[in-house]
Amino acid sequence: MAAGTRTTDERRTGGFLALLILLMIVIGGVGMTVMAKTRWWLPPVASAHGGDIDRLFYITLIVTGLVFVLVHVLLALFVWQNAAWGDRRAEHWHEHQTLELSYTIIPAIVLAILVSMGGVVWHRVHAAPPASALAVDLRGEQFAWLARYPGADGAFGRIDPAKIDARTNPMGIDPGDPAGSDDIVTRELHLVVNRPVEVRLRARDVLHSFFVPAFRVKQDVVPGMTVTTWFTPTKAGDYEIACAELCGVGHYIMRGKIKVETQEAFDAWLAGQKK
Amino acid sequence: MAVTHEHAHAEHHLSFVQKYIFSQDHKIIGIQYLMTSMAMAVTGGILAMLIRMQLGWPGTKWGLAAFLFPGGFQGGQMKPDFYLSVVTMHGTIMVFFVLTTALSGGFGNFLIPLQIGSRDMAFPWLNMMSYWLYPPAIVVLLAAFLVSGGAPNSGWTAYVPLSALKEASPGSGLGQTLWLISLALLIVAFLFGSLNYITTILNMRARGLSMGRLPLTIWSLFVTAILMLLSFPVLFAAVIMLLFDRLAGTSFFVPSGIVIGGQLLSHTGGNPLLWQHMFWFLGHPEVYVLILPPMGMVSDILATHARKPIFGYRFMVGAICAIALLSFLVWGHHMYTSGMHPLVGMAFMTTTLAIAVPSAVKTFNWLATLWRSRIRFAPAMLFALGFVSLFVTGGLTGIFLGSPPIDIYMQDTFFVVAHFHFVMASAAIFGVFAGTYHWFPKMFGRMMNERLGRIHFWLTFIGIYATFFPMHFAGIQGMMRRIYSPQLYAHLKGLAELNAFVSLAAFALGLAQLIFLVNLFWSMFRGPRAERNPWEATTLEWQADSPPPHGNWGAHLPEVHRWAYDYSLPDAKDDYVPQTVPTAQVPAHRGTDGGGGG
């Protein structure tokens, strides 16, 4: 590796690397993303806040996409320029305060804007649910979901894990609590289109996560805690709950059924469930 | 002021065992760490192939694999609990037993005394102990595959209660206990190492080598050691607490009211989120433990092979320190959807996106280093350039995940898997490759084959993008991580081809690594002899023999007269001026120097 003349071998390597960065990473990366949009992409959004999350996603995609292209084009350019150069010595140039400050401050400003936008959406998602919200209790267990509606009194009965019985009382409702006497326990989760729903999440055994891709909702379900999340489904139809937190050997089959329907259809379904 | 060991250059007569096995020489210990890490990388890589076999073609019968792993397959098909064991062990091995050990243990040990001009580490015996806790940790970890119930099923994050309750999963029995013991052993090894590095760098620098003249490799290893010293004890505490929960009936992490298999458990009063906080208080600094050393090494490799000083040395040091500080304040971004209070999420979003600023500074400084440089495309340089690309790609997807509303959707999907495989796995492994190609001549006194090295680079660079880039789209479509089969969900229909493609790319990527192994071992014994300074670099290690003798420096310790980046000085004869050349001989470039004094 003596200093001196640049070998054609090295020149070829540099040129090839620059080409690879441009073709595979810049054109391939952007091209695959465009192609993926028609094949492998976000499921159509079906909740009120989902649009906000998607908008933030697209803005971030554009900002990061531009930086991704910019950095790789520069990288390819500098590599190519080097490969093409003759035998002149590199510049002894290693400090430029204005340049360095500008690529400290500009990313900081862009990130501050992204933080603010994220903060607004995050705050909206976690605001208190409206009073008209439907209240549902949803429990994760290895490897299924169990829902509970409060019944005519609008109040959930107390849960006592010691009272859980797979056949007679799978939810473990305390028979001593009168509020629980009219609770309705179901395997399917039925929701009302365009009506906010507050889901109170609990776990029987280990961590699970309540993930409904179309609703852009994910909330871990933690033993010992009741975590609530709320959203407004906006499209009638059938959806699936996907467990998104590793919960054991059956994690991959821990699906739950959701049906979003009109208030009338919902009322009729609920009336048909046994108390 | 450097410490001189007058006895060090007296003739040493060490037995084979003292010299190569229970050695106290930092170079041997570094090579031991590197070689053991490579063996573990092969293990972790085979596990990755098993994961991709299952995800690429779920439900397929695999005759050969079923023959090799009889416990993990039933009727030729992979069992779900074995799949989770493989996922858990792949993550654990790659993060703790490959990247941490290769970067801090391997390169840290080998490079620190050589680059600061000392004869060895401050505590050679402690250094030997640090290495020798690592093989027992491996034995205990791998033994988990052999015990009843198999290796743990709870992922490398070992989230409680799955990891705490033997009833919760087959692997949550003895396998999980062994995992915890193994990790505790390895953490002690890391703490010995980091104490040693900090002491050595602060106290044993050569005369004239001020902190402001240190190569960025040393800066990054120094700051990494501080990170490890402050974060690993928290994981150690968590591991011990979880062992108590499992074996002694305590309930640090397990709440009351858990029912498994119809049985109400007796635990009471714990909180599963406490484990997540403690785990990620280590876990996030750990990500930077894996990426800071490659950042430092890549900075030096870029400068050396571009024949140009690193651009913005001060900003680079500042960025390393800023990243280190912020890395302690961002762990909650792993927990946006965990049930933690949303207000806390806001705070963590701010610190998380703030950490992107020093990362951007580093990226643009690397680019500026390449501008008007004169690159020599040695394999080390190719991998360093690849590192920059991978770090940028992985860093940018982190901006999605750092934003909590987007993370609601992306958390625990393959988007996260793609993100961290770019930014910490691939980028860090590119750091390991770049470092190996660059310092191999110093380690073994022989050169690696450049042609094989370049082929290795092309295949690996293409293979990594082909493997991990498409995973983003599986995540965007909503594919959850750690699922045994994506076939059951309606929203994952249409991903079969993508997953098969990723698997094929992963197999090709895995096979390409054989080229590296062949090159490594062939060159170790048959490569052409290396000169002292084959890359014409400035830093101190290239002033020692290749390989350096015990004690590194012969009779006299080196003396430093300039910073580490005097490349292409306009008025110098050569395009590099080693740090040991007095300024009377070649003047240092103005404004580059933090001054003398040790």
List keywords for this structure.
heterodimer, A: 275 residues, alpha+beta, Immunoglobulin-like, 2 domains, five-stranded mixed sheet, 39% helix, elongated, B: 598 residues, mainly alpha, two-stranded antiparallel ribbon, two-stranded antiparallel sheet, 18 helices, 1% strand, disordered N terminus
Quick overview of this protein structure:
Chain A is α+β, with helices and mostly antiparallel strands and 275 residues long. Chain A has helices at 8-39, 50-84, 97-125, 263-272, and strands at residues 134-141, 144-149, 184-186, 189-192, 197-203, 208-212, 217-221, 227-231, 237-243, 255-261.
Average residue pLDDT of chain A:
94
Number of domains of chain A: 2
**Percent helix of chain B:** 55-70%
Main beta sheet of chain B: 2 strands, antiparallel
| Chain pair sharing the greatest interface | A-B, 106 and 123 residues
Structural notes for this entry:
The complex is a heterodimer of chains A (275) and B (598). Chain A is of the alpha+beta class and 275 residues long. Chain A is 39% helix and 21% strand. Chain A has helices spanning 8-39, 50-84, 97-125, 263-272; strands at 134-141, 144-149, 184-186, 189-192, 197-203, 208-212, 217-221, 227-231, 237-243, 255-261. Chain A has a five-stranded mixed beta sheet, with no helix packed on it. In chain A, β1 and β2 form a beta hairpin. In chain A, α1 runs antiparallel to α2 and α2 runs antiparallel to α3. The mean pLDDT of chain A is 94. With 598 residues, chain B is mostly helical. In chain B, the strands form two sheets. A two-stranded antiparallel sheet of chain B has the order 1-2. At the A-B interface, α1, α2, α3, β7 and β9 of A face α4, β3, α9, α10 and α11 of B.
